[in-house]
Amino acid sequence: MNAFDRFAELWTDYLEGELDEQGLAELRQLMAEDPQRVTLAADMFQTHRLLALAVNESKSRQDQFVREAMSRLPDNQDAFVRRVMSNMEPASATPATSPKRNAFRTKAAAIGIAAAIMLAAVAAFYFGNPTQPQIAHDTTAQPIGSAIAAADVRLASNSNAKFFGELSPPVGAVLAGERDYVLMSGMIEVAFPAGASAILEGPAVFRVMSDECLALDVGSCSVHAPDGAEGFRVETPATRVVDRGTRFSVNVSETSETEVQVIEGAADIYDIGGDGDPMPDRDPTIRMTDGDAQKFSRGQAFAGGAIPFDASRYRSRLPDRIIAYETTTADEDGGAENLTGVTLQRGGRVVTVPVEDLIPIRVASFKATEPGPLFVSTGQTLPDGRIVTSSDRSLVTGAINPGGSREPLTTAPVLSGPSATPGMAIKFASPVENGPGPDVVFFDLQTFSNPPDGDAFHVSPLRFRDGLRSHSIRVYDLTMESPNARDLTAFYIHQFAQPVDSIADLQTQECFPNGKVLKFRGLAVGIDLSDLGYADGQRVDGLFIQDAMDDRHHVDPVFIGGLPAMAAASGETP
After folding, report:
1. Largest CA-CA distance found in the chain, in angstroms, rounded
2. d(CA 563, CA 439)
């Protein structure tokens, strides 16, 4: 192992709190030998800590992180911390532009801000400084997609993408040139004017450099450059990967090691100069072709080495999912009310299904073990046949908050009697055929104080047999943060004073309207019958829905519909 690799290994262990005293002494020696390693340590800290913090966003958990990091600081390392702090680069005041930096710079201004604040907090904790770090508001900062773009490079599609500190731009939005994007989770597809496309998977830090160049500081991307897009390139801190008519994947680690896997065609790999600039006039260091896989790193010298080829690293498309939906608009407040159509990806193909083509459902059983809001409606008075509101096309009517279980079912639910299973059974007007991708669309109403990814629920077969199982859904296709999730019109909630044990009880028990509610959104998720163990082409006549009971919020199913067979779907596109 060379000195660079050893340093990267020791520093990563230090960040994870796994470095012993002997390792710390060796790390100090390596940093003393080469001042550039202090700079690299700062950059690795920036990337490592922000991406590690992505799943712990609450203030209390951030405070916990500071204390945990504090506990890992060894004794007598004041100078060691100050040296790393002194190399933390200040955030740029204009995120739409960024100067070139050396090969180890991440160029992620947002990461630098967050990491510097966290490290300052650790230092304040360590030195007994009671002053809290202050964050200056950058009045020049612009939201994603609002800066002047260097080229017509657009967000082509989005699957549960979450960006650090900002909402995801809508599909079709132009991405700003030379602007740092920090994709915390999910996937996006970026389309370039000449026809090249790149699928990025979070966590990742990237920039659009031009209409034929993507810079990737950390994370994974999959590139397709068809005929006419040859020469498209991906620049990493260690390499420039130039397409020669191919499909390839690139993965950049926190230590800037770059893995390249060529699925088909060819790609040329160029060394990055010591000053961080690519060296386009050189002959390619390496020509890679079908089935080649190599890892490249830069220590004292550029080096590459063969690794096992793994075609699964390449993403040919985003997951099948609900992409958008259309509704009527209420005159009173302009909110969405009745569903008119759903656009989704099934088997890699985008289809638009009018609501008339969806297979309607009826509620066959309902049990809620707690009193509370069990109906929503557009009026203060429920109709005589209350349960029929669960079968209409409205996104603000129906029976909500069915009972549930922490553990999903492993045997058939009991649909009636004193031992009925908490939850709700639905029956389709005609059986739903299991095809590619989602087979059932499920809509949930959600407010901003509820889980932003949607209320978790279990979906189970009505009858179990070998091979069938329950499936839990915890993240919706369209969440509170999705640009295509629509604000709903106002509605009434109807409070029940007693638990409900049956549909008959739900139909007759006295309930009271509780005012008109505002500020809800319609979330949506597709249910793939394959996830329940059904075979391709198998037909299903019903399902059982239970809340996952993972928090105090219960699922609110306001619309459920089966999808027609793909041959019957309209608006089908490749």
Report:
1. 82
2. 5
Q: How far apart are CA 117 and CA 115, in angstroms?
A: 5
Nearby residues of 64 by Cβ (< 8 Å), 6 or more positions away: 56
Q: What is the pLDDT of residues 113-150, one digit of tens each?
A: 344 434 433 333 333 333 333 323 333 333 333 334 45
pLDDT tens digits for 55-99?
A: 344 444 444 444 444 444 444 444 444 444 444 443 333 333 332
Q: What is the mean pLDDT of the chain?
A: 80
Q: How far is CA 169 from CA 109, 146, 162, 179, 461, in A?
A: 19, 9, 10, 14, 37
Please, are residues 298 and 256 in contact by the beta-carbon 8 Å criterion? Answer: yes
Let me know the angle formed at the C-alpha of 313 by 310 and 314, rounded to the nearest 5 degrees. Answer: 110
Of 159, 201, 160, 193, which Cα lies nearest the Cα of 175?
193
Query: Phi/psi class of residue 556: alpha, beta or left (left: φ > 0; alpha: ψ in -120 to 50)?
Result: beta
Q: Which amino acid is present at 290?
A: D
Nearest Cα residue to 472 out of 540, 562, 404: 404
SS3 5: helix
Q: Annotate 87-112 with b (16+ C-beta within 10 A) or e (fewer).
A: bbbebbeebbebeebbbbbbbbbbbb
Cα 487 from Cα 523, distance rounded (Å): 9
Gap between the Cα atoms of 328 and 523, Å rounded: 16
List, as own/partner pairs, every contact residues 29-38 make where C-beta atoms lie below 8 angstroms and the sequence separation is at least 24, other chains included. Answer: 30/3, 30/6, 31/7, 31/80, 31/83, 33/3, 34/3, 36/102, 36/104, 37/7, 38/83, 38/84, 38/87
548: which DSSP letter? -
> What integer pLDDT is reported at residue 204 of this predicted model?
96
pLDDT for the residue 474:
96
Q: Which H helix or E strand runs over 121? A: helix 109-126
Q: Mean pLDDT by 10-residue block, N- to C-terminus, for the chain (574 residues)?
A: 72 71 79 69 55 42 44 46 44 34 35 40 36 32 40 90 89 91 95 95 95 95 93 92 93 92 94 55 75 83 82 95 97 94 96 97 96 93 91 96 96 95 97 97 92 96 97 96 93 94 94 83 98 97 96 94 76 42
Q: What is the CA radius of gyration of the chain?
A: 27
Q: Can you read off the two tokens belonging to residue 483?
A: 């640009």
Identify the three-state secondary structure at position 190.
Answer: strand
Q: Residues 14, 18, 24, 30: is their CA dihedral positive or negative?
A: negative
Listed in sequence order, the residues at least 6 apart from 294 whose beta carbon sits closer than 8 Å to its beta carbon are: 259, 260, 269, 286, 288, 304, 305, 306, 307
E-strand spans in 92-211? Answer: 154-163, 181-191, 197-210
d(Cα 83, Cα 347) in Å, to the nearest integer? 53
Closest C-alpha to 356, from 459, 429, 272:
429
Residue 50 host element (H or E): helix 36-53
User: Could you give the CA distance from residue 248 to residue 571 in angstroms, rounded to a whole number?
Assistant: 31
Reported as type and span, the H/E element at residue 31 is helix 21-33
